[in-house]
């Protein structure tokens, strides 16, 4: 991860955009919240750090090409991308917060199901086009007004033909074992999505060797029916052959069990 300090300061201009605040750093790029001074809209700017190398610019262009193929309400769209004052900039809608930030506060069980459904809908769309996200994690699930969740950051995404050679890129805490070995497939996103959903439901992230009961399992048992727990266990199987083949059947199965996933709340 790039540890350089952000170069753009609050109220500084970058083309038609006025910087409001720095949001995140990573992958030789900085992300800022900004105002489009022409439209008046609040936007997110991903700006390539001048210290980045040519490969990074190609990765950002790759992200733009992938995102342009995915027109879906639960996938973060790109408003525009290109050179602004000699810096490569990707402009996207500005979220209220990331799921990672939201997880710092207790989340209701219905909210867990609502966000899980939208995450799986986004991944099902990507997988239907044979696109593997490769970095599904709470930081890349962005939350917007009226309960909308959108999956972001397709910078590591790859097209799945049979399998994909990669360098183990991704986020360790949410990475499937085979992806850590540089062999991600569609089933790797299934594993990562399962971990994200489990984190929302349980308040903890399972770790290697991913043997049940996971941390927080008792909290999940108290709130969710067995069928939902089995759904998560199947997604988080170490042996990828035992997982859903992709997020397309995973999403379909989620919709089947969602209406009866919650245990009734016991009166106090």
Structural commentary:
By secondary structure, the protein is an alpha+beta fold. It folds into two domains: 13-93, Phosphorylase Kinase, domain 1 (2-Layer Sandwich); 97-258, Transferase(Phosphotransferase), domain 1, CATH 1.10.510. It is 34% helix and 19% strand. It has eight helices and eleven strands. The chain has helices at residues 54-69, 99-102, 109-128, 177-180, 186-202, 217-223, 226-235, 247-258; strands at residues 13-14, 17-26, 29-36, 42-48, 80-84, 87-93, 97-98, 131-132, 141-143, 149-151, 158-159. The strands form three sheets. The protein has a six-stranded antiparallel beta sheet with strand order 1-2-3-4-6-5, with helices on one face. A three-stranded antiparallel beta sheet has the order 7-9-10. The radius of gyration is 19 Å and the shape is globular. The mean pLDDT is 91.
> How do the SSEs run, as a string of H and E?
EEEEHEEEHHEEEEHHHHH
What count of helical segments does DSSP give?
Answer: 8
CATH class of the largest domain: Mainly Alpha
C-alpha Rg, in Å? 19 Å
How far the N terminus sits from the C terminus, by CA atoms, comes to 47 Å
Could you write a compact summary of the structure shown?
The protein is of the alpha+beta class and 268 residues long. 34% of the residues lie in helices and 19% in strands.
Question: Which labels suit this protein?
Answer:
single chain; six-stranded antiparallel β-sheet; 2 domains; three-stranded antiparallel β-sheet; Phosphorylase Kinase, domain 1; 268 residues; Transferase(Phosphotransferase), domain 1; alpha+beta
């Amino acid at each position: 991860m790039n540890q350089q300090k952000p170069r753009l300061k609050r109220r500084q201009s970058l083309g038609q955009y006025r910087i409001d605040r720095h949001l995140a750093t990573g992958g030789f790029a900085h992300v800022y919240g900004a105002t489009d001074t022409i439209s008046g809209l609040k936007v997110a700017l991903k700006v390539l750090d001048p210290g980045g190398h040519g490969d990074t610019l190609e990765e950002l262009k790759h992200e733009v090409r992938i995102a342009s193929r995915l027109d879906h309400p639960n996938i973060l769209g790109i408003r525009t991308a290109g050179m602004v004052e000699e810096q490569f900039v990707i402009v996207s809608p500005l979220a209220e917060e990331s799921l990672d930030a939201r997880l710092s506060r207790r989340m209701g069980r219905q909210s867990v199901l609502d966000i899980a459904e939208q995450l799986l809908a986004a991944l099902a769309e990507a997988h239907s086009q044979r696109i593997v996200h490769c970095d599904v994690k709470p930081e890349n699930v962005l939350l917007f007004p009226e309960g909308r969740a959108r999956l972001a950051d397709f910078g590591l995404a790859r097209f799945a033909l049979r399998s994909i050679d990669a360098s183990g890129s991704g986020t360790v805490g949410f990475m499937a074992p085979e992806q850590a070995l540089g062999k991600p497939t569609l089933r790797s996103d299934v594993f990562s999505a399962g971990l994200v959903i489990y984190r929302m439901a349980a308040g903890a992230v399972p770790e290697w060797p991913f043997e049940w009961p996971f941390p927080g399992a008792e909290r999940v048992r108290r709130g969710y029916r067995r069928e939902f727990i089995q759904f998560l266990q199947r997604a988080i199987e170490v042996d990828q052959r035992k997982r859903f083949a992709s997020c397309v059947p995973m999403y379909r199965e989620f919709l089947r069990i969602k209406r009866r996933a919650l245990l009734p709340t016991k009166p106090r």
